[in-house]
Write a structure and sequence with these properties.
The complex is a heterodimer of chains A (166) and B (169). With 166 residues, chain A is an alpha+beta fold. Chain A is built from six helices and five strands. A three-stranded antiparallel beta sheet of chain A has the order 1-2-3, with no helix packed on it. In chain A, strands 4-5 form a two-stranded antiparallel ribbon. The longest helix of chain B is centred in the middle third of the chain and has 17 residues. The termini of chain B are far apart. The chains are: A alpha+beta (166), B alpha+beta (169).
Chain lengths: 166, 169
């Protein structure tokens, strides 16, 4: 999954697009301030939108020992996947996790834990993904579906009218 | 609906005291501007589709009001207003001129100075030159007599998470 690039910023504010409702919010100090969160794969959404699908969990909701194990598992997975940067020093034993690291996770209000993102867990499925699934299921190409629509309808008004009647 | 003379601003933007953000309906990229869409090289059609000029030009050449002859523009405004009234979408309190003589020079100048809007017949989305995934998806659902719930259940049965789904689609 890609980090979403749907935000803009100037010197004072940034705008974020919710991956669930597509609403836009503008904030000056991160996501939490505007009622949004993101996951480590870059999905950004309103906390309230996510809660329609799953109970989101933030790092500060996790007991210290569980958080330490989660951090270690995550770093081990990064190393196993060969995604560790040469300059990075990732702790992989409980004794290597400092109080400062824990504090940083507990102060983080912008992120949800990977297992509670409604998009990552398929609790919410974006129409782009469902469309991709149908293309594969029916062995179609995106080009052929587009051409089919263009051959039948001359405008989106006409298409919407037809689709609305079916 | 207010008609060509006073088209609606798209709701998919946010603004503070100094700037507004606009999301491109084609590439989904966002732009932030201080003085309308033209400043950030974006345009909007009468139906409210907003996109980068460059993204739209990949599909169709946009036509601004300033590209149209005065007489043709007057006829276009009148026709559009008649359609809005006939469809019952005229907003209460809005006056929509339906005779050429009711179109004032001020109205024409307002349209000619408008760099933000393009006419719907040159909108990449209205003309189906660009079709977004939501529209394509809806078309396939209708074509195969499916519904969103059943497809989503099917996906969830086959894949336990998005990473697994992405790996196989």
């Amino acid at each position: 999954m890609k980090i979403r690039n749907g935000f803009v910023s100037n010197s004072s504010s940034s705008s974020f697009v919710c991956d669930i409702c597509n609403g836009v919010e503008e904030g000056y100090d991160g996501l939490a301030e505007i009622g949004m969160v993101d996951c480590e794969y870059g999905h950004v959404f309103h906390t309230s939108c996510a809660e329609n699908y799953t109970q989101i969990e933030q790092y500060r909701d996790i007991p210290k020992d569980d958080l330490i194990n989660m951090i270690i598992d995550r770093y081990k997975a990064i190393i196993a996947a060969g995604k560790k940067k040469a300059s990075e020093n990732l702790p992989i034993a409980p004794g290597e996790i400092t109080e400062e690291m824990i504090e940083e996770f507990y102060e983080d209000k912008d992120h949800v834990t990977p297992l509670t993102c409604p998009l990552c867990t398929l609790k919410f499925i974006q129409c782009t993904d469902a469309y991709t699934y149908l293309l594969k299921k029916y062995n179609l190409s995106a080009n052929s579906v587009g051409k089919e629509i263009q051959g039948k309808f001359s405008s989106i008004l006409e298409l919407n009218k037809y689709e609305g009647n079916n | 609906m207010k008609g060509i003379i006073n088209m609606k601003i798209r709701s998919g933007f946010v603004s503070n005291s100094s700037s507004s953000s606009f999301i491109c309906d084609i590439c989904k990229g966002a732009e932030e501007g201080y003085a309308g869409l033209a400043e950030v090289e974006m345009v909007r059609c009468g139906a409210g589709h907003v996109y980068h000029l460059g993204c739209g030009e990949d599909y169709v050449q946009p036509i601004r009001f300033s590209d149209i002859d005065r007489d043709d523009l007057i006829n276009m405004v009148v026709d559009e207003n008649k359609k809005i009234i006939a469809s019952g979408k005229k907003e209460a309190g809005t006056i929509l001129p339906v005779e050429p003589s009711e179109i004032t020079d001020d109205m024409i100048r307002h349209l000619y100075e408008n760099e933000d809007d393009i006419i719907s017949s040159s909108c990449a989305i209205c003309t189906l030159k660009y079709i977004d995934d939501a529209t394509l998806y809806q078309h396939l659902l209708n074509k195969y007599g499916l519904n969103t719930d059943s497809i989503e259940s099917e996906i969830r049965k086959q894949f336990s998470n998005l990473a697994e789904f992405d790996g196989q689609n």
